[in-house]
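step: validate -> pass
step: tokenize input -> pass
step: predict -> running
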Amino acid sequence: MEISGSTGSYSRMVQDGQNNQSVSREEARKIFSDISSDDSNSNSRLDGLKALALMDDRFLKETYIAKINRLSCEQKQLLPIPELIQEMTKHDPESERHQKMVDFVNHLDLTGVTFENTNFSGLFIKGLKLSNIRLTNPDFHGAKLSECQFQNVVMDNANFQDTRLSECQFQNVVMDKANFLCASLTNTHMIDSSLLNANMQYTIQSNNTYECCPMEGTDFGRSIFTDVDLASSQIEGCDFEYVRCHGNVKLPPDIGLTTQDAVIDLTSLEDLMDMALTDDGDQKQACIAGINNLSCEQKHLLPIPELIQKLASYDPDSPECQKIVDFVNSLDLTGVTFENADFSELFIKDLKLSNVCLTNSDFHNATLIDCEFNNVVMDYVDFNGAELTHCEFQDVSMNYADFNMAALTKIHMEDCFLFSANMCETQQENNIYKRCDMRGTNFSDSIFVDGDLSLSPRTAGCNFQGVRFWGDVKLPPPSRTREEQFADIENSKESDMVEKPSYEVHSFVNRQKAVTGEESDFESDFESDFESDRELGRELGRESDRESGRESGRERNTAKSVSFASTGSYLKLDVDSEGATVKGQEANISISNEDKHGKALS
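step: predict -> pass
step: emit ->
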């Protein structure tokens, strides 16, 4: 490979996106010569460092790491190490390129080097180890640091605001006046590190240890501590106002502060309400982050169902209701189980719950609008008499749910389980059931208006007895659509209206067999009785025609009512010149057409 000056072709080599780079000894020698030259620019040095970091030849890489470590402090000062760290974060932390570049930086001896105004904001840095350097005004704002180590490092005016530190270690690090506002620290250990007058307000700290750390004057106000050990550190003059402590929090015994003084109990409904309704945004976010960092067992103790019940204390359109809902929506309740939660008769709007278990929960007579449930277990849930409007259910288990007499409007259920659910006498309008397992569900005596069940073929054993269909209701295949089933009726308005129920009834019987996979209870009796009923109907129809013929000048647009009485069936047929409505009781029929003015006939 040819190297041409400070802009050698290795710059293209590290930009070609390959994980593995083959660099010969001659190429490596020219790269090192370039990065150590006073005449090279920063971009050329950065390309050279990336080329060395990504080499496959481990022996050759270690050789040139040793050569770089023998450079003078002034020469190392010119190396774009902060920019190299920025470059490594452009790749997935688990990728080979990221790991190679981290390993390269970790083996550099940067003793005595100072990097000013380094910008690491928003980066995801994993496994980085820095020691014996000075970082003046480093900016880690919004960054995520995982498994990083800092030893004998001076970080003047460090900014860790909104930073997430996990499994990190700071030893002999000076971070006086550092800004950790709203930062999250988990399993982080600080040993002999100075944090004088640091700002640690609204921090979320879990399983952290501060060992022999001078921290006088540091402000921990409104933070949340879970299993934090400060017992061996100097924290005189620290501010612990409104700190909330959970688990085993150890403080020095001689500062006149006990854990109880710093506790706001999140298991208290009153305290949780205060957090949900506060106008202090920073405090609320700190509380939410603290709850989200709790263990699943700790979250289980939170009175979240009782907090939702508090919606009944306010007007549904009030700011208080919206604050409570927004607060609950921000919580990560993954894996938490709330049993026998009572939401009956509540008015709930915009609630979003995911990854929780609400077994035996009670929503009877409740009103839910614009709510979302994602990956929720709600087996044996009670929606009896509830009104659900524009709600979404995704990957929700509602086996044996009770929707009796519920009203569902514009509901979207996708990949849900409704095994053996009770949906008797429900009113369903514009609902979509997509890839739902609805085997054994009872829809009897319900009303469907413009719904779609065609994408949920697993409906074996469903009961559609007495169901009435209006508008465009799509049933699971191989059922025919409503338009296909009644095309003959609509296209032959001059034919004998009395005979039309024959087509309709048999169509419904076939449809029920296709949907449920079972014979209808009345099918065999119905076919034997219907022939005699049809003949009686013809006679009554002819009599009706003779009666109307005696009234000359009148158009035949007067509706007629013909009743059929026979064993096992009762039908009522209302007919006019523009359309027909067929109502079935024992025959399980209810089909509506519209007249020419768009008005439904009943």
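step: describe -> The chain has a mean pLDDT of 78.
step: cleanup -> pass
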